[in-house]
Amino acid sequence: MYEQAAHRGIDWLLSQLKPDGSYGQTDLACYYKSPSALALAGHPRQARRLLAVAVERFRTEDGDFVTSAGVKSANPIFGEFWSYPNGWLALGAARLGWLGVAHQAYAHLRKYRTPEGAFSANESGIPDAISTAHLGYLALTLGDLDTAANAATWLFHLLAQPDPAARFYLRTDENGPRQSDDSPLHVLTTGAPDQPYFMIGYPLAFLTRLHQVSGHPDHLVAAQGYAEYAHLCGENLIGTAFSHKVGWGAAILARHTGDQRHRALATGIADHLLSLQGPDGNWSPDGPAHATFDDTAEIAHWLLEIAAELPA
Q1: Which pLDDT score, from 0 to 100, does residue 293 have?
Q2: What's the whole-model pTM score?
Q3: What's the rounded Cα separation, in Å, for the pair 202 and 35?
């Protein structure tokens, strides 16, 4: 069921390809997730051509990726989360065996490391949860285990929240969680609808994957901590489009531990994502092009990952 829905989304992406291998779109946000999604879905040739387009059109001399000089994307969120699309492109390149592209992208992304061993979303140097998990996962994928372990340590300490039943802070300063932050991109209101729960989903997935390599008990304890927070959020977490990465992480943790609560969380999220799919197979069909391509590639990708991970 999940694979079938994912492949409908992938088929929509394939239908948008032009003879030059591009989507005919000019925004980086239309491209950055598709190489990984198409490769995972069994279309490496199209994925490689699309990655080649992205490298040719969007990569800068210093290894960054931008839509145009000083502009990451028409999606304003990337004005802050500048490093995020780069990580997807590097992971896609690694999946496709283009290790030169992956390592060049990673060399640029290492500039966002913070003294705490975490990663920042931009040049502010303020560590945050999703950037640390995303780029920590890239480090793990490329074999930089020390960097991945340092990222995991920061994520472990982030779980020491002042009142997680009310709020979960996603960034830190020298005093711990930044309690002055009010943006929903910086703090989750526990159990509220339409929160960007993917911010805790990526740490959940990354920490479980790292534990499978390291065997370190703290990595599993931390993964379970993020999972427990997800369970605390209840139905509002399950019934939003913003929990796709939680579904992925919960599926990995369910396979690793056999805990049926995590399986139920993953399937609940995946079932909701299926209900949001448009008649043409895409997601966010009424949004701007950068949102439709972005969301379709991402949700198809995570549905395939969830289907692969869920215990039989």
Answers
A1: 98
A2: 0.96
A3: 19
